[in-house]
Amino acid sequence: MAERLDRRVGLVTGAAWPQLDADDQLLQRALVRRGVEAVPVIWTDPGWATRGWSALVLRSCWDYPERIGPFRRWLSEVERSRVPLWNPVETVRWNLDKRYLMQLEGDGVPIVPTVYLDAGQGVNLPALLRDQGWEEAVIKPSISCGALRTRRVRRGEAAGAALALRDILRQGAALVQCFLPELLSEGELSFVFIEGALSHAVRLRPRPGDFRVQPTYGGTVERLTSPSPDLVQQARAVLRAATEWVDPPLYARVDGVVQQGQLLLMELELIEPRLYLRTDARAADRLADALLDRLGCGPRSRGTR
């Protein structure tokens, strides 16, 4: 029988996922097995702060990009409440805008070639692609998740896609990224880290005829049973570079595409990434134990394994 703990942990979700994503339910069950009351909390619920949380963990709150103003205010409310949030508020604020990619590139992290466009900036998309020497690109908002408003653009079709880009820029900043054909042939790699240690890794592939790897769009997920040690080191280097900007995160997902043996960072997910816990039988337990360690009642804090 697990030791009972006087802990109440809120797993933060969105209104469309009131019982959490199926993957996050694995974490919920792992916490319950450890004597923790772990319950979903919808971040837009105005009564969230009255429920006596020991901690909050961001999980399936995937609606925040479309409600970024309220979400920023919610983060400030959490900060004032002094309820521990993982990952922490300052980490979330840094990771919200994909401008962080440019900061990491400045620190020597290889990224997918990217042009960052400020909100309201005028841009000639065909000329941009021509000047960069890109045959294809992907455009997306700088604050987004789950391939929201993400579009693949071929150079010959760039004039038609310019309207979509202008629409993004009317509302906020945008990224234009070189489209890498390796995404279709080799897939995207995701390395999941818990307290800085690799937990597991997966390969995501888009369905035929698409470029988006998310399961929502028909993408597939397969566990990497023996990821290349060199690629793991490259992914870990991304995480080390991030800690120049924020504190070491509880959880992180490093997403990238491999080109000629080099992992090119697509995104460093520190807010609400799907962690693919179902692909590794021990992953949910690792995350639950790490969370309890941060609360001072996990295996390390009790001096046991």
Task: Explain what this protein looks like in three dimensions.
With 305 residues, the chain is an alpha+beta fold. The protein has three domains: 8-87 and 281-294, Rossmann fold (3-Layer(aba) Sandwich); 96-109 and 182-270, ATP-grasp fold, B domain (D-amino Acid Aminotransferase, Chain A, domain 1, 2-Layer Sandwich); 114-178, 2-Layer Sandwich (Dna Ligase, domain 1). It has nine helices and 13 strands. It has helices at 22-33, 68-81, 89-96, 100-106, 125-132, 158-171, 182-185, 229-242, 283-294; strands at residues 8-13, 37-42, 55-58, 85-86, 114-117, 136-141, 151-154, 174-178, 188-194, 197-205, 220-223, 251-259, 262-269. A five-stranded antiparallel sheet has the order 11-10-9-12-13. A four-stranded parallel sheet has the order 2-1-3-4, with helices on one face. Strand 9 and strand 10 form a beta hairpin. The radius of gyration is 20 Å and the shape is globular. The two termini are 16 Å apart. The model is unreliable at 1-5 (pLDDT under 50).
